[in-house]
Amino acid sequence: MLASTYTVAFDGLVARPVKVECALAPGLPSFSIVGLPSKAISEAKDRVRAALAHLNVAMPSKRITINLSPADLPKSGAHFDLPIAAAILAAIDMLPQDKVARIMSLGELSLSGKLIPIKGALPAAVTAGTLETELYCPEECSTEAAWVGATRVFGVSSLAALLAHFTGAKPLAQAHPAHLAPIQHDRDLRDIRGQARAKRALEIAAAGRHHLLMVGSPGCGKSMIAARLPSILPDLTPAEALETSMVHSIAGLLGEGGIARTRPFRDPHHTASMPALVGGGKGAGPGEISLAHNGVLFMDEFPEYQRQTLESLRQPLENGEVVVSRANAHVRYPCRFLLIAAANPCRCGHLYDANLACGRAPICGADYIEKISGPLLDRFDLRIEMLQVPADELKREPTGDSSAQVAERVAAARAIQTERYASIDNTHTNSDCEGEVLMDVCRPTQAGQAMLDLATERFSLSARGYHRVLRVSRTIADLAGDVDVDTPHIGEALSYRLVAAPKV
Fold first, then answer.
1. What is the four-CA torsion angle of 315, 316, 317, 320, rounded to 10 degrees?
2. What angle do CA 236, 129, 41 make, to 5 degrees?
3. Amino acid 186: pLDDT
4. Of 106, 130, 188, 294, which alpha carbon lies 20 to 30 A from 8's?
5. CATH 1.10.8 fits domain 433-504
6. Cα within 13 Å of Cα(421), Cβ side
7. How far apart are CA 196 and CA 361, in angstroms?
8. Is the separation of the CB atoms in 191 and 321 below 8 Å?
9. What is the maximal distance between C-alpha atoms in the chain?
10. 381: closest CA among 195, 206, 196, 192?
């Protein structure tokens, strides 16, 4: 007897279709799985046998061969349990072979036949839609997969429920996306006393997705400001939500509702290793930069990270994607994120305070900040120095715009950029534009160009620095609702670039 069904094998964010074939042949009873299975898949034999025994279904006394096709594609994960069990049940005529052959399933089986939640239901649903097959997955993952909308999704609680569905005893209800409550932010930008310049830089960074470096004494508000960035960012677009959710689905981080709605905010500790940040480890999984895709990566105590870890950010910051290469894996992940970095001016942190500065000032500050290489520093569009807020300012009532007011301006600027780059591939914000597009949309007025040329010559701006000033100027103009990039926009953009490193 021969029966087949479909499942997937994960290659980064791509769920590649896998045909699961079950063949029963005369001979001594045996159970083998071929097709480059991992250890977890090989152990499926015992889980499937125990799950069938719990249903009072005896394994056929024949040679059972499970083939996972294509055979040259490495396969891993416990989600192969359900399709293997379905193929065996179809081979012994307990499930209709014609129906099982046209479905895709994934799920880990417990010894009692219950289905355990798995990672990657969302990418699997995308592949099922491409193949025009129904998807059967654990109940807890069904609302996640249903967001794709390209195929019918059924949540299965157990192997017994799958049997009851196909025999007609108790058909399963089609899964639907969960209802999501409105998003609420509990941190408001208005809570920050003083630091008007830092809040302005944060607004520009949010509007154009410009990377921001904040240097200041301990306790001046760097972390507080960064923590309020999600409250002024626009919600994810449907395309961004699906893309972000697929990364989080692979990592097993999707919460209730099964879809990412807010932009991710990742803040790894400065002791994080390079594989934790960039991606890798066992299975070449996504790192923090990919988990921050379409969102924010906040790196506090920036110079305290290992030098190799910091340098690994160079290429992802430019390309918006990272390739994780390991001995048994070569995986590509998206990582188009907004980098917010915070650093003390020196190791003790009191370089800017004449009363507390150590005897090595200002050499101590130069030695500390030099841990950040010039090429990496050059990739920050905005750089600001923050001083301590006076005590009198702390006692006053909060002033300035609220997060809702700033978010409204950011959303308006993002809408302008969305319309501007609608017909251009891989360009969504001002920070993405390059080449002819950059020179077209960011071209300053004659007076603005003269100011930029003078600054480029006097401060030895690199070509990258020159173009980043243009991008920031374009964002500042968008926030103001101005069509042309003029001297005020160029001047403000330059002020954010030259303050921390005048020679770059």
1. 130
2. 100
3. 82
4. 294
5. yes
6. 21
7. 27
8. no
9. 88
10. 206
Give the mean pLDDT of the chain: 90
52 sits in which H/E element: helix 44-54
83 HSE (CA, 13 A, CB side): 31
Residue recorded with tokens 């396969």: 75
Pick from 209-213, 286-290, 326-330: least confident: 326-330
Give me the architecture of the 189-403 domain, per CATH.
3-Layer(aba) Sandwich (3.40)
CB 82 within 8 Å of CB 117: no
What's the number of CA atoms in the CB half-sphere (13 Å) around residue 381?
A: 32
Residue 329 Cα to chain centre, angstroms: 20
- Name the one residue in this structure whose structure tokens are 């594609």: 73
Answer yes or no: is pLDDT of 256 > 70. Answer: no
Angle between helices 403-420 and 196-208 (to 10 degrees): 30
pLDDT of residue 152: 96
Placement of tokens 């049940």 in the chain: 89
Assigned token pair, 6: 């479909």
> Residue 115 pLDDT > 70, yes or no?
yes
**Global pTM value:** 0.90
Are 2 and 22 within 8 A, CB to CB? yes
Alpha carbon 453 to chain centroid, angstroms: 37
Higher-confidence residue of 206 and 184: namely 206
- Give pLDDT, residue 349: 80
CA distance 323 to 145: 26
Over the stretch 360-398, which tens digit does the pLDDT of each residue have?
777 777 788 888 998 999 899 999 999 888 878 887 877
**Could you tell me where the DSSP H helices lie in 209-279?**
222-227, 238-251, 274-278
Sequence letter at residue 273: S
**Alpha carbon distances (Å) from 443 to 115, 422, 485:** 58, 19, 7
Query: Do the domains 2-167 and 189-403 sit in the same CATH topology, yes or no?
Result: no
Topology classification of domain 2-167? Ribosomal Protein S5; domain 2 (3.30.230)
* CA–CA dist 113, 51 (Å, integer): 4
| The predicted structure's pLDDT at residue 363 | 78
User: Tens digits of per-residue pLDDT, 291-342?
Assistant: 999 999 999 999 999 999 999 999 999 989 998 887 667 889 999 999 999 9
The CA–CA distances, whole Å, from 401 to 224, 397, 398, 408, 418 equal 16, 13, 9, 11, 25
Out of 7-16, 173-182, 221-230, least confident range: 173-182
Single-letter amino acid, residue 189: L
What stretch of H or E contains 69? strand 63-69
